[in-house]
């Protein structure tokens, strides 16, 4: 039967870039390969209806084979929407409800792509790594609280929750991936300060590593990891880290490899008990929304990750190759969102 | 009476670089200006005696006018020392006991200094900003715990504690500093996910901002802040943020402005109820310890921050100017730690 892909375009540039990702999927697999179902979610819906994610919609999404997500966020200057409503009510709701414990974020510096790094850094070696960010624990749990809210005596807490179960499964995923890459895993944490969580992550990391004697291991404090991302990103192959450190490191990783316009991600449930979700790392960029200025490449590469997850490796490779060819043939001439999407779709069809 | 400066050289390159900082202080203020008292603390002492920081030593340090700190850390490959022992027992013990709520970390890209950033980035403007990192709260409190330690059911938590009292005083310090600089303060947090702490930080930030109408304000999520540090660091003037975000951002800030060999810091108690502590951002770098390979510049710039804190602005300026002149006249020829320290001391004396 035809796999169903739930499409959440969202707000801002989300719908524009998602349209091009759907175009790429259609180009590679044919017009009837997937059944795409659009979902109207995001700031606009919240403003209209007060709803972020009705339970019935979540249940419907759960029936899809995969989710393609654009971006969500309020319009610029809109102060009616409390911070976190969409993030926690929608993105994180899906990640947690569908147990997306592997938040996969590949980074690769394509040749010819402008990077903020000096050539003394980019000349050190090929930059091609993947961050395996834990997606269902840590500071993202929403644990914590507030007392004496709004007073000079206010105390606000945030609790990072880490379990052996949760750490083990994501660390094992990272090692598995490393065996299909360059056999190196770097654990990033801050175990000299966060000793409770740090000891757990280190212990589990060492235990899993023992099962992969061919994989070289490495540890960096998160602060030191940011230094290496700026000075020697070629040293990384697979990085495994917690939810918040992964959030921070992957934006920096995207920046040094040509910007979040190119950074794809997968919120993956490797056990396949729920659908996985694929989304560009960038946000809704409301300032350029509707102007055909957004680069759909990150969304299209996210669609390639979706294909891979569905076991359609050959199609995934064709999309990735078309994107690579498009990126490497870029000139200074500006192109619209649709033009980039069309060019990639044409390459896919021609391949 | 002669101010007392407690000197904690520590381990690895700590003593080497601290020696040059003391040399600079002596050069600028004369041999009798300060009474330096050495403290033997760090991994070596712990190995010898099992002591990290006896209460009596902490009490003695409390009597000093300021503390000059090098770095602490175990020798490479030393696995006898549990992670966090020195960090929490010594550095963080002092920061918390002496209420160092302003962790001050200036970043400046000196002309001619090698940076990992492309000239397309460094050409955007002068890079000169300061991160005001909260130093007594957040995830550094040591709150949290472990249950079912060492089992497959282990749960480890870390609690970030944020108080209106603690946030207000550091945010106010940041605004005060901005009025003496370029009148811009950027709050960095992650209030879309860490909504409890985020709301508190945002509320207090807005309240304090209302007292400084001449200061321009800005907000960035921590992940986005790393992007701007890599792509447009010239946009920053004063950045205020919590303890962990500040830790991460300042290592990256150091990396993009020429490396942690140049990054100074002050752990400041502006209320002066206890001595403040000044330390290079870098660690003990045991791999190059004792080889005269370390750059003492960060330690010397930390000494300049110490002078400023003690109200000796003219001397602080002379040290900073000597360091600037030294940095800007560097050639590719390698110099030893002592040679760099001597060159700077000579410039100070000649000024
Ligand atoms: C929007 C936000 C909740 C999200 C996160 O923090 O995970 C985003 O920054 C990301 O990296 O996907
Ligand atoms: C050594 C460690 C405890 C410390 C910190 O995390 O604050 C260091 O990284 C720093 O930035 O001063």
Features:
351 residues, alpha/beta, Isopropylmalate Dehydrogenase, ten-stranded mixed beta sheet, 12 strands, 42% helix
Question: What would you say this structure looks like, in words?
Answer:
Two copies of one chain form a homodimer. Helix content of chain A is 42%, strand content 20%. Chain A has 351 residues and is an alpha/beta fold. The first copy, chain A, has two domains: 1-102 and 263-351, Isopropylmalate Dehydrogenase (3-Layer(aba) Sandwich), CATH 3.40.718; 115-257, 3-Layer(aba) Sandwich (Isopropylmalate Dehydrogenase). In chain A, a hairpin with a 7-residue loop joins β6 (144-147) and β7 (155-163). In chain A, α1 (14-29) crosses α11, α8 runs parallel beside α9 and α11 (313-328) crosses α12. The model of chain A has no long low-confidence stretch (mean pLDDT 96). Chains A and B meet through α4, α5, β6, β7 and α6 of A and α4, α5, β6, β7 and α6 of B. β7 of chain A pairs antiparallel with β7 of chain B, so a sheet runs across the interface. One 3-isopropylmalic acid sits between chains A (87, 91-92, 247, 281) and B (192-193, 223). Chains A, B: This is 3-isopropylmalate dehydrogenase. Chains A, B: Residues 4-344 form the Isopropylmalate dehydrogenase-like domain. Chains A, B: InterPro entries: ICDH/IPMDH (IPR050501), IsoCit/isopropylmalate_DH_CS (IPR019818), IsoPropMal-DH-like_dom (IPR024084). Chains A, B: GO terms for molecular function: magnesium ion binding; NAD binding; oxidoreductase activity, acting on the CH-OH group of donors, NAD or NADP as acceptor.
